[in-house]
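Notebook entry, structure prediction.
Reason for the run: the old model in the group folder had no record of what sequence produced it. Starting over properly, with the input documented here first.
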Amino acid sequence: MTDLLNLPGLTVEQVVEDDHQYSIKIGRRRGDRLHCPHCGCVDLRPNGSREVRIHDLPIHGKRVGIWFDRQRFLCPDCGKSCSDEPEVFDPARMMTRRLVEWIGQQGLRRPFTAVADDVGLDESTIRSAWSEWTEARIAALEIPTPHWMGLDEVYLLGSARGVITDVHQRTLVDFLPRRDKGTIGRRIAGMPSRDQIELVTMDMWRPYWTVCRELLPKAQIVVDRWHVQKYANEGMETVRKAVREGLPKKRRIRLLNDRRLLLKRGADLVGMEPMIVEAWCGEFPDLGAAYAAKERFAEIWSWGNEADARAGVRAWAEEMPEEIRPAFKPLLTALTNWETEIFAYFRHPITNAFTECMNGVNLREIMDWKPQNS
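New structure, fully documented this time:
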């Protein structure tokens, strides 16, 4: 009968099987507790026993309950009590340690209700055990501090969640419940040897910058070029929307549908697409000027020299037609407020592309998995 449980140190005395479960009675251990866990006293006194049920892994598709006479002891020195508990039992729950591990693994891919039905426990108990199992493993992880760190966020269930990645090694460092200064700061402050972080790539979110300047004074901040170019794209979009407002309904729909072509890089247009873009830009000079400004600004990222890039941006801003300048004001402001961090790209050409990719993967995985156990 001992092999039925396959738990070291337990002696099976009786097995009762019905259609749904095994009830297994094990013998009470004697003399195993040699000292008080609170004060170390070795003169413990028996203080009664009580039969308890410990849940274990299913066997042959049936639930398992281990019945055990739990002996209690009283310490004469400190007055505290303790119990005779086999090592294979979880100290915090009426379960075996292996059942807690099994619940943790099963909860990663199955609904909590299904796991609860397998072992004969409430879903809330399964959820609580899984949460503690998960937290313990997260706490035990030894995640190396990155040399090149990416900071970004993903919007999930109505809230912005912080994402930290190792841009150089292309690995996820952490997925945080919020992206505020306190949350990001506590995580970075807890990184071992954080002074080894050389580069940090981020979007233009001021709390990120503040945390890095306070905690990583030696690190070079590099604003992700995609977020800068996004301002240029949005400037062109502002002009396109203004043009669209004055068009008849059918042409408004047409210009809306051609929006993706205007946002595309000119070099990526294929087939009839260049002619469509040229037609819109030729018919509406402001749209043509905005499209040209967007395209010219995008070319700057291919310049490897910081001095040339700075000169190119100055020339781009000076030559911009006054009619479209208001639409590009957010970009012009960003180029002033984040000048050092934006042009640092030309000395350290790293981007947050991997972090953005991780955001998409995490969002899809979480949204696919969450409804199972919600």
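Summary: Confidence is low (pLDDT under 50) at residues 361-374.
The old model has been moved to the deprecated folder.
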